[in-house]
């Protein structure tokens, strides 16, 4: 919505808006892994998350309040977006580490699904309300950004209801819970489970793994010890998943802004309303997708649902390419309204793809990081890959749209979107713990897992 506001109400060019959000995305990318590393060690997760939400909301208001006409103070706006990117980098690892610390790894599937459902429902309500108000008060749509502090107040209120004692900071990292911490004996000191917890959680060693070896005799590689960041980066499964996250968002990140621009640019207040409907429709179906992921990913595994969600993107790009081709070469009564309605309906596929992806990437990150003690760092890395893909996609997509047109851009994005599907099908194994046992149980009940896949 900020992108549409800047282009339609402040006279920014697509390139100027693209530069701003490129700076935002790159600052997010650079700080997400450090943010995850910080969350792994911090026992003030709720405070850090609350602070990042407040700063993000204030900087959103600053964007609406201080953006000059035609990008007159573009340098200041880029600086605001850099600060906002740094603040928002703490939100994904903060929210999900708190979640895992409360419900544990066994409860993550259901709880992440619930979190994503509430996230998408809240976004749909706010965007739809803001779009209707924008339709009424156009062109003074900058006032709509007041919804950001209103939502921020709600977030802070509910964060204050979380009892810090309910967060197991070991499980929040992906380590065994407190009661399962084994006794660890060093050369000269016998460490109790509490002292082990202190050394792991409260005192970062800043040991990134260079020159460190771990035995498999139950001493040095004990399950209570967190892996070094270098060990995490050496995991080939994580590397494949990072490439999948990057390539998916490289294709997906710019599709929604381009769709919104085809509806908004030159259509005044109606365009603002249609842009809001784009987001609201997608968010409603994202909520449904998150619910499906919560119900079935623990039963049938992560891979079938993940591939299903990813494959919706090339189909969406194909439909948009065909639709814009028809629009260019045909005219019929009320064609403009019919075309806009059809374009809106392609957002159902966005809801399916992004809804599945947004839920499942957190769950797969949790699966991969299980037992490493680096859940937030792993999630920071995967989120950084998504952010980098989205940032490059935004600039790349806008440049293509200006140079060769929307139809050809959607076609190119469709080809790129086949890459993550291929990588996941061919190179990414099932990550759900104990899935082999579940497959055996399903087969005993007469259901062939290969048919599900």
Number of helices: 21
Order of helices and strands: HHHHHHHHEEHHHHHHHHHHHHH
Mean pLDDT: 80
- Taking strands numbered 1, 2, ... along the chain, how are they ordered across the largest sheet? 1-2
Q: What is the radius of gyration?
A: 23 Å
Number of strand segments: 2
Q: Uncertain regions: pLDDT < 50 for 5+ in a row?
A: 180-201, 205-223, 436-443, 446-453
Helix content: over 70%
Structural features, described:
- The chain is mainly alpha-helical and 453 residues long.
- Helices cover 74% and strands 1% of the residues.
- The protein is built from 21 helices and two strands.
- It has helices at 2-9, 14-41, 45-66, 74-88, 91-103, 108-137, 147-160, 169-173, 193-202, 229-233, 236-252, 255-264, 268-300, 302-329, 335-345, 347-369, 375-404, 406-416, 418-427, 435-444, 449-452, and strands at 184-185, 190-191.
- It has a two-stranded antiparallel ribbon.
- β1 and β2 (190-191) form a beta hairpin.
- The radius of gyration is 23 Å and the shape is globular.
- The two termini are 37 Å apart.
- Mean pLDDT is 80; it is low at 180-201, 205-223, 436-443 and 446-453.
């Amino acid at each position: 919505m900020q992108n549409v506001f800047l282009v339609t109400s402040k006279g920014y060019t697509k390139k100027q808006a693209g530069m701003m959000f490129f700076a935002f995305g790159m600052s997010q990318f650079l700080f997400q892994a450090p943010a995850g590393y910080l969350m792994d060690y911090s026992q003030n997760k709720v405070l850090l998350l609350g602070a990042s939400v407040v700063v993000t909301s204030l900087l959103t208001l600053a964007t609406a309040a201080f953006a000059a006409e035609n990008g007159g103070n573009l340098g200041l706006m880029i600086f605001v977006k850099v600060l906002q990117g740094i603040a928002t980098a703490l939100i994904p690892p903060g929210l999900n580490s708190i979640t895992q610390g409360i419900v544990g790894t066994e409860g993550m599937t259901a709880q992440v699904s619930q979190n994503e459902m509430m996230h998408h429902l809240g976004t749909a309500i706010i965007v739809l309300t803001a779009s209707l108000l924008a339709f009424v008060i156009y062109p003074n749509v900058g006032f709509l950004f007041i919804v950001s502090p209103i939502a921020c107040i709600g977030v802070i209120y509910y964060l204050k209801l979380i009892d810090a004692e309910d967060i197991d900071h070991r499980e929040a990292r992906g380590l065994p819970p407190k009661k399962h911490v084994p006794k660890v004996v060093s050369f000269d000191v016998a460490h109790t489970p509490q002292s082990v917890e202190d050394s792991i959680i409260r005192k970062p060693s800043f040991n990134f793994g260079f020159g460190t070896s771990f035995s498999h005799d139950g001493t040095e590689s004990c399950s209570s010890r967190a892996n070094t960041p270098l060990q995490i980066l050496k995991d080939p499964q994580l590397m494949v998943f990072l490439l999948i996250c990057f390539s998916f968002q490289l294709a997906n990140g710019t599709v929604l802004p381009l769709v919104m621009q085809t509806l908004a640019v030159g259509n005044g207040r109606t365009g603002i309303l249609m842009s809001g409907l784009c987001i609201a429709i997608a968010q409603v179906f994202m909520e449904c997708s998150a619910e499906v992921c919560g119900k079935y990913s623990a039963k049938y595994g992560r891979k079938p649902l993940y591939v299903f969600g990813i494959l919706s993107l090339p189909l969406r790009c194909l439909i948009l390419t065909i639709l814009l081709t028809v629009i260019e070469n045909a005219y019929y009564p009320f064609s403009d309204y019919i075309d806009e309605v059809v374009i809106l309906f392609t957002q159902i596929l966005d809801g399916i793809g992004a809804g599945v992806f947004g839920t499942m990437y957190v769950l797969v990150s949790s699966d991969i990081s299980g037992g490493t003690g680096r859940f937030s760092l792993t999630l920071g890395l995967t989120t950084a890959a998504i952010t980098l893909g989205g940032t490059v996609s935004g600039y790349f997509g806008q440049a293509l749209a200006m140079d060769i047109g929307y139809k050809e851009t959607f076609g190119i994005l469709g080809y790129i979107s086949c890459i993550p599907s291929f990588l996941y099908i061919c190179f990414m194994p099932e990550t759900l713990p104990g899935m082999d046992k579940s497959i055996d149980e399903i087969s005993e009940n007469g259901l062939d897992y290969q048919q599900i896949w």
